[in-house]
Amino acid sequence: GLSGGVGASTASSSVAGAVDDEVLMGYVNYSTGPVSLGYRLTDNSAGSGTEKNVEAYAIAFNVNDNMSVSVATQDIEFDVPSGTNTTETINAFNASYTMGAASVRGTVSEASDDAGVSGSDDEHMEISLVLSF
Description:
The chain contains no helices and 8 strands.
């Protein structure tokens, strides 16, 4: 089925002359059989002057009752009024295998222009074991 939502928030500052932070977001997710597709947009207008616009996509596939894999990408545009805009791009691959009360999970991701800094790249790999009691 299809699901979605929208949201908004405002963080008010108690500092005289400071601008409030405002966030607007929306998402849609569609699942059919073993496949799920997701899309998200976010607009974050920070009081500090830097605005972040986020666009993200993901697809997940349940291989069987125990294993799932997913691929995701996210672009964050750092809109700097007094400078050059930069877009951070993050790509990730995730896998999970569950057997009884134990789950082994792994993720590999790469980010270019990390945190909005041109030329700054980051790689991340994580493997975890989760036990439920």
